[in-house]
Amino acid sequence: MKNSKIYDTPAKLEAIHQDIKRLMERSNQEYLDLMMANLRKDFIDSLTVYMSDDIGMGLERGMVDPCPMRETCKSIFTDFLEDNSKNIREGKVSEAEIAEKRGELGQIRKQVSFDNCDICFSEVNSLFEKQLNLIGSLQIYNSNDEKKTEISAINEENIVKNALEPLSNKQR
């Protein structure tokens, strides 16, 4: 034998197998993540189109009709609500952005002086709350900016050794 090294073929094969398995799991996860991101984007795009239609119909139906400022207010309200739906398209809405939008709506409210404005603002507020409910249900509302650990990043051995084995011990 010219080669003095002894190769542990089964161990090498097992290492290669584990490497290939990890590579497959990682690429499957990346593919799944890509599919979910595309699905989420398409879903959010569909919802924002629906919201745009809902904004137009809601304002048309809910605003006071014989008002000299109707078209001006409708334009301002539409811009306000459409701007909010752009935030939804981005996929993340912070608590500060929502507070800013509430403040912006309050500023618009302070600028008007007609008697029937409460009716129109009630409709706008209703549409805005619908958008906020949608933000909450899509889980794109960041109430705090903490990062959450991915469950796949948790070391399995540590969980078993430090949590599961002590819990399964009959003496405890």
Describe this entry's structure for a reader:
The protein has helices spanning about 10-60, 70-90, 95-110, 115-135, 155-170, and strands at about 95, 140. By secondary structure, it is mainly α. It has a two-stranded parallel sheet with strand order 1-2. The longest helix is centred in the N-terminal third of the chain and has 54 residues, at about 10-60. It starts with 8 loop residues before the first helix and ends with a helix.
Features:
172 residues, mainly alpha, 2 strands, 2% strand, elongated
First and last CA, distance? 58 Å
Oligomer state of the chains in this structure: single chain
User: Order of strands side by side in the largest beta sheet?
Assistant: 1-2
Structural class assignment = mainly alpha
What is the number of independent domains? Answer: 1
Total strands: the figure is 2
Q: What is the gyration radius calculated from CA atoms?
A: 28 Å
**Shape descriptor:** elongated
**What ranges have pLDDT less than 50 throughout 5 or more consecutive residues?**
none
Q: Indicate the proportion of strand residues.
A: under 5%
Helix content: over 70%
> What order do the helices and strands follow?
HHEHHEH
- Please count the helical segments: 5
Largest sheet: 2 strands, parallel
Average of per-residue pLDDT values = 79
Secondary structure blueprint with pairings:
Blueprint: H1 9-62, H2 70-90, E1 93-94, H3 95-111, H4 117-137, E2 141-142, H5 156-168
Parallel strand pairs: 1-2
Short structural description:
The chain has helices spanning 9-62, 70-90, 95-111, 117-137, 156-168, and strands spanning 93-94, 141-142.
